[in-house]
Amino acid sequence: MSNLVSFDGNVVIIGFGSLGPGVLPLLLRHFDLDASRVTIITAEERGRDVADKHGGTFINDPLTPDHYRDRLIPMLKKGDFLLNVAVDVSSVALIELAWEVGAFYLDTCVEPWAGGYTDPDLTPSQRSNYALRESALKLKAAGTQPTAVITCGANPGLVSFLTKQALLDIARDTGRDTAVPPDRRGWAELARTLGVKTIHVAERDTQVSATRPKQVGEFVNTWSIDGFVGEGCQPAELGWGTHERHFPADGRRHDFGSDCAIYLMRPGASTQVRTWTPKEGPFHGFLITHNESISIADYFTLKDGDTVHYRPTVHYAYHPCDDAVLSVHELAGKTWQPQPRQRLMMNEITGGMDELGVLLMGHAKGAYWYGSQLSILEARALCPHNNATSLQVTATILAAMVWALENPERGLV
User: Fold this and answer.
1) N or C: which terminal CB in the chain sees fewer CB atoms within 10 Å?
2) Can you tell me the distance from the alpha carbon of 248 to that of 263, in angstroms, rounded to the nearest whole number?
3) Distances (CA, A) of 118 to 17, 88, 230, 253, 265
4) What is the gyration radius of the CA atoms in the chain, in angstroms?
5) pTM score over 0.90
6) Which residues pair with 369 in a beta bridge?
7) How far is 136 from 95, CA to CA, in rounded Å?
C-alpha cells in the first residue's frame, strides 16, 4: 500500500492506552515514517509490547505541569508532530508548546491537567467540557501558526463530518438543493431549512467477551477507562436548541462564551436518554458530556448579532458494551469511587460491533441515522491492536494528521 503523505519529522505520542497502540501501526503503514522517529510518553507499562514490536522509544513517565516543558522541548523541532491521546495532560499547554517550537498538534479531547475535572475550587460550569472548549478556542487569536487540530477522533471529530453528509442525504431525499454549502452559515441555513431540531450522537457498542466476563470490583470497557469515568462523572452537557420550550429543572446556563449549551446538575453516567441505531433499534443511552455536543450545536447556530434564530439540540446518547454498563452501575453504587481493578477489552473480545453515528430528527422524513457499523472481526482485519471502538478513532486521527500536514499553517482548527 502506498504512503498517503511524505513526512520527514519526528512524532511524539503522549499517552499509549486504548488509542496509542492502535494508531502506531496506522502511522507506520500510511506515513513515510521509520519507527525510530517515534517517541511514546505514557503513564503506565500497558502498550510496551506493542511499542517494542513496531519499534520506537517507549517512556513510562507521565508528563506533569512542573516538567513537561523541560522534557518535550528537546524532543520537538519545527515540522514535527505532537499527538496527544492521553488523559490528565493539558491540551492548551501542549498546543502552546508545540507552536513555540513550530510543531504540529492533534488531540481527540480538550484535556485539563490531572484533577481538572474534579477540582472542588471550580464550579460545575468551570470544569465542564464547554469551559474546556472555550479555553482552547481562545488560542485562535494566535492567528497563523502550525496547524493544531483539536478534538478530532471519532466523537468528537468523525461525527461532525457524518452530520454534514447526513444533511446532504436528507436534502437529496426531500427534493432540496444538494449543493455543498460554501461556509458555516450555509450549513446552518441548510439544517434550518430541512427542519432538523435534534441531533443525537447515537452509539451502541455490543462487543463482548464470552470467555472473560466482568468481575466484581472491576471496571471493564472497550476504550479508555480513566477517560470514560472522568467524563461520566462530569455534569451531563448538551447543546440547547432554539425549538426547546421546557428547560430542565436541574439545567444551568453558562455565564461566559457562546451560550450554545447547558449542563445538568447530575453526572452524565446517571442520566439516560432514549435513542436509536439501525442494528440495535431503540435503546437507553447515557447522556455523557462530549465536546461534539457543544461544537456541533455551535457550528449550526444561525444568529444576527446577539439574536439566535436557529440552533439544534445536540447530545451524546451512548450505550457502551454491556460489561461497561455493569461497571458504571457498580461505580455509581460505590458513590462514584473507582473500582480497584481496570480491564481494557481487546484480545479477549469474541464478538460484537460498535455502531456509531448521528441521528438527525425533526425533518420531513422524521429521523435519519448516518454512521459507521464496524464489527470486531472487521476491525482486526483492517489494523492490528484495535477493536471496533478504537479503530473508528485511530482512523480519524490518521486522516486529521494527513490533513494538517497538507494544510500546515491553519493555526487552531
Assistant:
1) N
2) 9
3) 21, 11, 8, 19, 14
4) 21
5) yes
6) 359
7) 9
